[in-house]
Fold these 2 entries.
Entry 1:
Amino acid sequence: MTKKFVANFVVVENKPLNATNFLIKVKSDSTLPPIFPGQFVNVEINDSKEIFLRRPFSIFEVDQKENTLSMIVKILGRGSKKLTEIEPGNQVSLVYPLGKSFTYPSSTDKVLLIGGGSGVAPMLFLAKEAGLDKTQVDVLLGARTKEDHIDVEHYSKYAQLHYATEDGSKGEKGFVTQHSVFTSGLRKYDKIYACGPDGMMRAIAKVAKAEDVFCEVSLENLMACGFGVCLCCIEPTQKGNLCVCTDGPVFNIKDLKW
Amino acid sequence: MVDLKVKIHDLEFKNPITLASGTCGFAREMADFFDPSIVGGFFLKGSTLKNRDGNAYPRMAETPAGMLNAVGLQNKGIDYFIENIYPEIKDYDTQLIINVNGSTVEDYIALTERVNELDKIRGIELNISCPNVKEGGMAFGVSCPGAEMVTREVRKVYDKTLIVKLSPNVTDISEIAKAVERQGADAVSLVNTFLGMAIDAETRKPKLSTITGGLSGPAIKPIALRMVWQVANAVKIPVIGMGGIMNAADAIEFMLAGASVVQIGTAVFKDPLLAVQIIKELEEYMDRHNIQNVNDLVGGLQM
């Protein structure tokens, strides 16, 4: 049993990172429970007309001293759009912390973290929390263009950052799976982690499986509750239909039917 | 101090606020949020004799003031429940009621007999109203002969409290309620979800893998309330009311319409602590209206 909470947070920051992604930081008036990379929050959208359910977002940064946590919100539909319009000072209700975290690397591991779009959030959280020397951590970030990349240069103290863009405007041209970090062989990594579009994660999983390298991905199936009672977000796995919200969102690719 | 205790046949509820099947897992999921002994009871996730994988993804579509689901009774089967889940929850100081499902009458009987072995499960909710399974389920619940037959056969093998969960997808729900009452049901619970549908205009595809699914949430509340009122006026056995309850006022409305116990359902997805809040607000309401015993609210609609 893991204690979960329903709590109001105050929005302390809401800033656009680029055309479609926003950074929203919220603050609690009480101490936060332990929160690990890969876990998520389910956020109530303050609009009773059309948006009935909460919206899940991966946790990006946590400051246990300030009792703040932040998420990268990508505008996907009405719910996420509405959330990005919230002004600092307003309250927002969170159900948290939800889901299982990534498996932490051991101290001697060399790891590759691959993030696409707003999927960079849990990857950077993990890069920071893994407690490894930056020489052990490669972070590969993919986006369509330079403008679609979020500025995360300050994470260069935790990891070696690599970029890919489809048009070649930042870093290497092409998908993350065409990047030299990825194509030069995955065997040199002990663990690979990925979060991003489904197609990206499947492409990564295919290669990781072929090279027999440990690989975990974070899924984002449609969900209603976020804590394992509605059984809507299921993913077919080797162990049957599992809930992405409680059995995941992090899955080892060996367990998936990809 | 107000008296919140209610009784349905042999089942004593410490208060009339319970959680609906399919929205509270097997109660232990809710224990991550609150002490399960606070609420009146849990109607556990629909169980079947054997493991069921449920329907394909996507199973959920948000709709105005509610949602559609097409889960299709995913569960690991009664043996798994008895071995792995029951030991963990049996000492919760609250009522635990199993929601029982079958494709055939024989399934319902076999499942009921297994459940009968469990000391701490003192009631079953016979689900003859699931809209998301191909066989059985709602097929029994949409005709009087079907509903009567399954209730009669289960009654023969079950002495504890038998609650029959009714489908709203019928012409006259009070006729079905009367039919199951005739066959010995101790109570009826209503309503299950309304059959509905959602389409993505951009892709021209249905939003659910099953095309149609069950609608729940506040969108259905006025219809559910009307049905509870109609059924409460048609039968002598207690009525358990549900359908879009989002706050204490909604719960009280269902009680005034004739429900002895209410179930909080889809709203739990939005607020897992809602049942706890409703109990508190129900007490405040009773204080404010000078009502000592919650049973005085039941059917208290003034016309």
Entry 2:
Amino acid sequence: MIPTELKTKLQSRVSAAITNREAAVDVMKALQAHYGWLTDEAVVEAAELLGLSPLQVEELATFYEMIYRRPVGRSVIHVCDSISCWAMGGESLLSHLSGLLGIKPGETTTDGTFTLLPCCCLGNCGEAPAVMIGDTICGRVTVENAAGLIERERNR
Amino acid sequence: MPKLIIDNIAVEVADGVTVLEAAQSVDIPIPHFCWHPALGKAGACRVCAVRMMEGPVKGIQMSCMLPAQDGMVVSTTDPEAVTMRRNVIEWLMINHPHDCPVCDEGGECQLQDYTIAGGHGIRRYDGKKRTHINQDLGPYIQHEMNRCIQCYRCVRFYQEYAGGTDFGVMGSAGRVYFGRFREGQLESPFSGNLVDICPTGVFTDKTARFRARYWDYDMAPSVCPGCSLGCNTTPVARYRELLKSIARRNEAVNSWFICDRGRFANGEVNDPQRPRTPLIDGVESSRNEALKALLFRIAQTEERYGTGSIAIVGSSRLSLEAALLLPTLAELTSSGALCYFASEEESGRTLPLFQLLTAGRSASQRDVRESDCIVVYGCDPLQDAPMLALAIRQAWRNGATVYTVGDGISLPCDVTTVDRLDAVPLSDAKNPVLIRSAADIPDQLATTLHQHDHLKLAVLFPAANSYGASKLALKHLGVSFEQAISSGDIKGVISVEADIPQKLLEGIPFVAALDWRMTETVQAAQIFFPTTAWVEMKGTFINHEGRVQRFNKVMNPGVPIRGLDPAVHPPHIHRTAPPGGEPQPAWQILAAVIEGLGGELITEPFTGEWERLRGLDAECEGVIINDI
């Protein structure tokens, strides 16, 4: 159950949209921020808010890789695996981060702080290899400075 | 009208027609998965590649995405195009399981056909395949996602064409999954079409699972008897069991699809309780004995109660052939009443509307799909004739306004609710169609029709041959059985596939029944003849618009082999008919009765004004009889 305040806020977001579907991503992101991930309950709630069926919300939720339909840690580390970042060492960076955190891609640290996920292009090719930690995009990430970025996020 | 050349053949097609359709029009097949005539293109499968040699675009193109244009020179056999198609098929097959021998689609699988035709005979990929977890989609549809080639036909049909919201496509890229949010029965009343539309075995008919291969099917063009729309079907049988039905294309009627109610209705034909043997006073007998007994009791009833004491009762589900013989039977039995409707209620909601369907007035499903203004008045198409609701949705998708008079009617599209029929701006519409069933306000309807010459009427009648029954009832001054017995003179009934409730038969000493279903009337009858169901005979129905449609015989009647006790099957006695094979088409039984009563032997039921229906082809669009 989401709080009435959030519900009212989202209802007005939906009514401001020209089509309900247009507000779907905002609603899903807000519910994800509330629950930590987009729970099954949240999908049904989003469907009610948007006037769609749960399936239609699920179609959108599973399309976007930054909508999480499974529990994730407090911060998600997205490591770009698209062509530019791959060419600039994205693959080694991902395995380095995996070693640093002691988890495989797709897993969450036992303390629930970090989830490590490969992702498609972050639109930061000029600064490849790119990583997104939480909501922060980091460019030119190297094996050397990666640990520092993680520590900064851990202490945030 | 663009002119183009495809494989050295000059083709001229209408504007907007794709290169793929242009090629099909001259019998050049181009493989395709995502493109479907009723759903259009998606550009998802990449298998319809052709090479454009000359014209506005050049090189390899997807023929389903490309509108035909003047000056195009197309090659479907160019080595580059052939290689492209072969590679695409190989790639589509990478994740496809090697389970054709145990897949229900095998033998009727488009993917199988095009894989072989495309030249990809030997698999080179030996890596791991993508796999999915299937969902339980209810009792009718079997889900097997591993076979999916991502053509998106299912979701385009389910959501766009049929307006369902509980089935769709999830995920992205190599992970797309076609299914529901949660396991459970598909909600759409048109879900069975997923089976027909899937080019491979992701959706198969669960009710016919693992029963037969395509080349073993008994099948023939048929017509659905489920309601008065007369949607075209291909029923499939094997070993005397009706296994399933497939939608059959008829652009004037149901286009490519049928509803679930019509599709999953095998039960009655295969019913172990179905009466299959002639009975005299509850005792099994031969056809000849039953016929003799019937003739005797007809004579006895006339002798005891006088001329006019017998009623001949047909019904609106009875085939036209048998319905046409009833007047002759009535004459020979000097019957007191010829009835095509059991109750006054059915007669009352059929005849007044039938009389409004003057020439050119009745609307086909195609007329509904092409209409720009639809009025649903006093009926619920989703309940009464689901395919009409689907037709309404297509009109709405093409921009039509859909009005419902009064509240409480749900349709798979947006509707404008009005209080009265007058409130609909019919004069502004180009091709308006009014949809109606019960006739409680026929006067207002007649006035509206009179005011708007261009308004077409689609009437939802109670049964498959209501139109034929109405036509004959009016011609032969038939009355409803309920009215016929009100005089008290009726002492005998010959019921021909009629559903006469027990209470109307009280106090009638002689009841004979012909039917293929176990009805109250059959239970009350002293003499009974089993008739064939529609799939076991060649016959004719007239649908709601007055379209005469022929259906052919799919299977021989008989007790399905499935379920027989292995101890008694095969039967070790000599017999000429299979067990339970006694049923005959109702008209043939009637012809024997007529002959027994001293009439001429009838070998052809279509005579006089009906003669033109003799050679009617089951695979044509049907003929409109609307000349009253």
